[in-house]
Amino acid sequence: MESKIHEVVDQNSERQLRLPGDQRKRLLLKHALWHFSQKGFHATSMQEIATSAGITKPVIYQHFASKRALYLELLNLVGIELCNVIRDATTGAKTVHERVSRGYMSYFQFAHDNRAGYELLFGSGQRLDVEFQMEISRIENEISDLVTSQIDADISEAHRRFLALGVISLAEGTVRRWLREIETSDPGVTSFTDTNGPMWATRVAELAWAGLRGIQREPGNDS
């Protein structure tokens, strides 16, 4: 029996090794993302990732210098994807209200469809590591820049950036609560609609819009 198992593993490894390099790298990233999101950075081994991907551990090091380099690349890729999702959703909106609605809907949809990536980026464990925290802060600043550029109001740049932080924090805090409710109340439900995701996103967007539309420049204060 053991020889049969090794034979299957060896056959899988041969198939994965025949993949083009870019496809093999994407496969590694996919399996690494799942393991890191489930167990965290320190508790996940490169051997686990290799076995899950159906390759040998030395193959991983053909693509990544270390487990830390692999983790940092994943953080960067998830951050880029989230920024692109928000940007694509809000581009072309005819009004600021529509822009806010689309932005929140895309954020909730991303968190639902990319649960592992969202946990990797906004989970608490990696924030204890200085290098990971620096990368996450860089990504958060990029998201903040994007949201700041979308706030159309006669206020200073500093004021718009402050509001952007509030908009982002509202989204993150609500999404994490919503995801916990999904996991505890009905973990078998997989559809974004069936999890009441659109309703949550709409309500939070309306709350944010109600606040943003009342913002005015403070007399004698440009900050």
TrEMBL record:
Q: Which InterPro entries match?
A: DNA-bd_HTH_TetR-type_CS, Homeodomain-like_sf, HTH-type_TetR-like_transc_reg, HTH_TetR
Note the Pfam families from the entry. Answer: TetR_N (PF00440)
State the UniProt keywords alphabetically.
Answer: DNA-binding
Q: Which residues bind DNA?
A: 45-64
HTH tetR-type domain: which residues?
A: 22-82
One GO molecular function term? DNA-binding transcription factor activity
* The protein, known as: HTH-type transcriptional repressor BdcR
Provenance organism: Acidithrix ferrooxidans
Gene that this sequence comes from? bdcR
